[in-house]
Each structure stands twice: as structure tokens, then as C-alpha cells.
Amino acid sequence: RSRAEVEATLRTAKLDPAELLPAVQCLAFGPQPPATECCLLQLEPGLCAELEAGRSLVIRGEKDEQAVLCSRDKTYDMKIADTSNMLLFIPGCKTPEQLNEDPSSCDIIHSQIAGFSNNYWELRRCRPKLKKLRKLLMEDPYEGPDSQKDQALTFSKYTTEDLLSLIQASEEEILHHLQVIDACKIEGYWRVLEFDYEMKLLDHVTQLIDSESWSFSKVPLRTCLEELGSLEPRQAIIFKHILLSYGRKYVDDGEVYFEMLEDKICRAIAQMLLKNAVKFNLSEFQEVWQQSVPEGMTTRLDQLKGLALVDKSSRPETILLLKVEDLPEDNQERFNSLFGIREKWTEVDITPYIQDLCGEKQTVGALLTKYARCSMLNGVKVYNSRRPIS
């Protein structure tokens, strides 16, 4: 188009040229059909900053999984959003701001359309899908250097790179969850300890603390590893892992010490007592539990949140093992599972089992409103399923 043709079009459209920018961009399709393989991705400012800083965004997911996009520390669901307006890809197209900044812009700019789309990928922040991580590592838990499986090197092997390719979560979220599930790196591979083996090692540590009359708040790392080295040859790294899992590391006067965590030790011993029982009389369990923990430690039921469920409606009251990590990861499936176990829940009882489902800026109350129905039972607010449970 010439300038005269542009001005004629403006007059036909009854537009005042004085109200418009002087530069005109004329768009045209090229001689070849525009490419349609292009995809548009809508990014929030934080993700744009990641790319501008030279960092990568990675799409993760196997063939049977919904794709997610991961930055260094966040995970996003990817969904296609349709638009009624055709979106054009125009290399070198200038925005009004750029035209204003460059007064010398050509009077008429001819731009060629390279492609188009009627939809784009929309990102929505989501919880990382980490349940698979524990499942993979539990395929072959570490039972010690003398186990036949490890000697034969037949266990499932997962390096950090393997997990990054298999788990739908960002690198920081994966590494943080490896700490949460107390995984350790042995000969370059991430492993979780077999529970009975872990309890044996923890018992060695607590017995040493007792025999040396150490304070649980000041366990010396070097001496601990020297004393325990004879019990588990070549296993200094494993005992250090036990101290890291059940204690808090600190340095005093150049020496490394650990403050043992009472709540975590009591919780592990409770799991050991409950794991082979369908239900346990609550009062009997509390008595046995207190007798089983190291002397000087005190057991409390609030140490068992997300691990065990107390039934106060039965006579006598009972307790059973119910680990939150064994429940489904999907919101609706999680609630279906919980309401299959118990028809009515108080908010106090159900919170430890749904807290991890809360997304960014989401509360337990919002989840209960969406997936449960509230009622009163003997003056207490309880929640039951919104749909029939088969």
C-alpha cells in the first residue's frame, strides 16, 4: 500500500489520522503458506525474568502423563487456551511504544506474517507431582552393604539426572523432597533406607548416647562415627545420614554436634510399633510407646499427625497406622480414600491428611468447602463426602 491508499482507508473508516501514530505497518502473508507448527506460551513476569537471566524452562512428563513446565524452583500445569482472535507471528513487528521511541521510523513499514495460531499454552502454578519419587526409591530400599541385592548390583538405580527426567517437579522441589523423605546418596545413587534397617541403626545411635551419658542436645559427630564404625563396617556415611535425619547439625568450638529431635525419634518408634498391627488399644499403645522411646524423651499424640489415626468413638479407644504418603496424590481421589476409611471427620483429624494438597494461597477450609459437606454431630462440626463412596 502507498501512503495515499492508507489515508483513503482511514477516511473510509472515518478515523482521524491526527489521533494515530504517523508510522503505518502493512501486514501481508508471504509467497509460502505461513508455518503452523509454532506454539505460543503465555509467561508470567517471573518466568520471563528466568529466561532473560539465561536460565532454562523444562517441560516434563512421560507419554501417559499431563505435561508440566518447570522453572528452577516452581512447577506449572500446561493447558491449551483457545482464543476467538487469530494470533499472528510477525518477526520484527514494532509495538506502539517502540515506534514512539524511534521518531525516525519509516512512514510505511511492510511486515510479513510468518505464522498464526488460534490458541496458546496457558500456565497455572501447581503442586509438584512428587508421589512418584518415593515410589521409585521404594522399589529397592537400602538394606545395608551386606544385602544380596546390593552385592549383586541388581537394585533400581536413580541418579539426580534420572529423577529430573522422570519426576514432574522442578529441581529445587525434587531435592527438597529427597530431604523430606530422608533419602541419601550412596555411591552416586539416591536411596531410602529399609525401615527395619533404619530402626536398627537409630537404636545403635540412641544406645551409644545412653552408654556415653551424652545429652540429646549435644551428640559429637566424630566420636559417634568412631564408636559406631565397628558395628557397621564401611557405613560411616549411613550413620551420618541417621544423625542428619533425626537430628539438627550445628558447630560448637570447631566441632560438629547434633541435637537429636525428640518428636521425630518418638514418631519413628511409634511407626515401628504400629506397622504390624491392624488396630491398637490406645491406652495400651501409649504405655508401650513411652516405654520404647529413649529415656528422657516424652511421647505425645500430636507427634503422630499424618502418621496414625485415633478413633475416639470406639470403646476402648483405638489407634491405627495411616500414613499421609500412602494416600492418593489427586485431590478428589484423596478425599474419596479418606471418606472410605471414615465416614465423618472433624477438621482437626482430617487436616494432617489434606494439608499437603493446599496450593499456593489455598487453605484447608477452602479444600473442605469444595470436596466435603459440613454438618453438626453432638455439637461438633464434622465433614463427610459430597458424593457416594463405593
Automatic annotation (TrEMBL):
* This protein's record includes keyword rRNA-binding: no
Q: A biological process (GO) annotation for this entry? A: DNA replication
Record's GO cellular component terms: chromatin; chromosome, centromeric region; Ctf18 RFC-like complex
One Pfam family from the UniProt entry?
A: Dcc1
Recorded superkingdom: Eukaryota
**Keyword annotations:** DNA replication
Looking up InterPro entries in the UniProt record yields: Dcc1
Q: Which family does it belong to?
A: Belongs to the DCC1 family.
What is the protein name stated in its UniProt record?
Sister chromatid cohesion protein DCC1
Q: Which organism encodes this protein? A: Grallaria varia
